[in-house]
Amino acid sequence: MVSKAKVLGVLSTQSQGDYNGALQVDYMAVEFHAPSPLVANRKCHLARYSRRLNNDAWGVVDVSLESLSPNPLIKYRRKSSGRLIERFRDGLCKVTWVEHCDADNSSVPEVCRYFVTSGHAYGAEQWLSSLVRQHERLTNIRVRHDPKSQLSTREANLLILVDQMMRNFWRNLSFSRKNRRMLVSLSGDENINKAIIRFVKEKEGRRPGPALVMAATIRILASARRIFYFLQDENSRSKKWDILSHGHIVQQTRSISNGCVAGNRVSVLEMKSPKDPDRAVKTLLQECFSTFACSYVTFTPVEASSINMILNGGDSDNVPVPPSGFSILPDGLTRDEVSLVTIVFQILDSAASPMCFPTHSVYGMIKLITETAKAITAGVVDPYNMG
């Protein structure tokens, strides 16, 4: 949810050298971002106060400095918000989160309007969901690096690569004004009539060359849980929604549990031709995870030799992970009956640049997103079309 953060200075602090009693001014050019590129990021400067309440409890409170100087051009002000962190004797913590803000949501597209105004996009539940997920990710990597653990250090290397893929994916989801974007009209269906396309620089991730990213958000009359399981299923991929794998066999060759929720896992998928089932045409690295507030299915093509190298203890730093995938969230109005699905595809294009989006690539991505959206909708709305 936070793209950038920079501490400008500590105005006051206590002598013990920690953050107890500290007042910081944080530059949140972070731009809080929602998991849809159609929703503009929120910027602000914060004053943050931290206080140790007792031996087992901390309080951290933020307030937007923009509140001190009203300006009609400012679209977002964070009022007194914060979190109470209580430590329990069994090593667990209880976190209570409060979000309070003023925001101008007039520019939010209709498809995302209730998701934003209901508080699901930037509210306390979304912050806690991000906190829980990040804790799970770091715990899984740390446990696999523990010499006393029977879990594989090799798997930890693969999880680190997946973590980089996810960071790239969230960056692609973010509506940053820093990057040039183009709004694209998708004809033929009112539910998928807008998409965002942008150029991706090589330095943003370990990518083999210039690329274009296109993303669109649609409403689907199905629960987030139903859509999540549909997208992560190999049979649904090859037979239903993934038009690039139609006619192929998709098999999961490795699976690593990556969280407490059933279905949270990292997988290595191989795509094979029915005529030659012993040879993989393409290898995909995929992560699926779900929390109480959101779900993601993200994947990237990876050379089989790179997967083997990492699992044999090799360094993953130079392995490109250009991500595509889906974010799945409640629409904010019906909660369990309608979901918002953001579809993101990234393709390599050596002719692409910040000022040039090749026409053939744009049209190809429009077709890919449109057909994928229709296939997912048909697959999860029709109960007889799931298998």
Note down, in words, how this protein is organized.
The protein is of the alpha+beta class and about 375 residues long. A hairpin with an 8-residue loop joins strand 16 and strand 17. Helix 2 runs antiparallel to helix 3. The radius of gyration is 22 Å and the shape is globular. The model has no long low-confidence stretch (mean pLDDT about 80).
List keywords for this structure.
387 residues, nine-stranded antiparallel beta sheet, alpha+beta, 7 helices, six-stranded antiparallel beta sheet
Quick synopsis:
This protein has 387 residues and is an alpha+beta fold.
| Oligomer designation | single chain
Low-confidence stretches: none
In helices, the fraction of residues equals 10-25%
| Helix segment tally | 7
Note the run of SSEs as H and E: EEEEEEEEHHHEEEHHEEEEHEEH
Structural class: alpha+beta
Strand order of the largest sheet: 9-10-11-17-16-15-14-13-12
The main β sheet shows up as: 9 strands, antiparallel
Task: Bin the strand percentage.
Answer: 35-45%
End-to-end distance, in Å?
A: 35 Å
Shape: globular
Number of strands: 17
Mean pLDDT: 82
CA radius of gyration is: 22 Å
Write the layout of secondary structure elements.
Layout: E1 6-12, E2 23-32, E3 42-54, E4 57-64, E5 76-78, E6 81-87, E7 93-98, E8 101-103, H1 113-117, H2 124-145, H3 153-173, E9 181-185, E10 194-200, E11 211-220, H4 224-232, H5 234-241, E12 249-257, E13 265-273, E14 276-290, E15 295-301, H6 304-311, E16 324-330, E17 339-348, H7 359-381
Antiparallel strand pairs: 1-2, 2-3, 3-4, 4-6, 5-8, 6-7, 9-10, 10-11, 11-17, 12-13, 13-14, 14-15, 15-16, 16-17
